[in-house]
Design goal:
The protein is an all-alpha fold. It is about 85% helix and about 0% strand. It has helices at about 1-20, 30-40, 45-60, 65, 70-105, 105-115, 120-160. Helix 2 runs parallel beside helix 6 (about 105-115) and helix 6 (about 105-115) crosses helix 7 (about 120-160). It starts with a helix and ends in a 6-residue tail after the last helix. The model is unreliable at about 15-25 (pLDDT under 50).
């Protein structure tokens, strides 16, 4: 009996907290979400989703290399799947928009949107994939060099303390 009363009390407190305005999350306005979606799209984020989806279709179409008799049917299936994948991609754009809207004000999103619409913002989005390729390439080299530096310096310092590291 006491256990049931405790459960009821705990459930009541939890429900109160969930319905209380202090604990309830406010939903962004339609204009806030529209700006967030615009930022997600104009920032080039949707292009990233395309880059993830296309390999799926490419892999599917590679089946016609090993089974040429299914090429026509496979091409039709890929054509049929594209609109469905676009809907899936739109779900990710919506998720990104919600993430932006939950972390940034409408005014901040407006400023960012204006930037992405500007010539400099358009140039940024256009050049970003190449820049990221360069950064990733440089990061691999830097990571290797930094790892070697850390081990070399650690060996040197440990040697001063009478320890040998392999």
């Amino acid at each position: 009996m006491i256990r049931n009363a405790s459960r009821l009390a705990a459930t009541s407190v939890a429900l109160f907290m969930l319905t209380s305005p202090v604990f309830a999350q406010t939903q962004p306005s339609a204009s806030h979400m529209a700006l967030a979606r615009e930022v997600a799209l104009t920032s080039g984020m949707a292009r990233s989703f395309d880059a993830m989806v296309e390999p799926f279709l490419d892999q599917l179409q590679q089946m016609n290399v090993t089974r040429p008799e299914i090429k026509n049917d496979l091409d039709q299936v890929v054509t049929m799947l594209r609109p469905e994948l676009d809907k899936e991609k739109q779900k990710m754009v919506d998720n990104a928009a919600r993430a932006f809207a939950s972390r940034m004000t409408e005014a901040e999103l407006k400023t960012i949107s204006d930037f992405y619409k500007s010539p400099a913002g358009k140039k940024y989005v256009e050049t970003q994939p190449g820049i990221l390729d360069d950064v990733v390439r440089d990061l691999a080299t830097w990571t290797q060099q930094t790892a070697q530096f850390v081990m070399s310096r650690a060996r040197e310092e440990m040697s001063k303390r009478g320890h040998q590291l392999q």
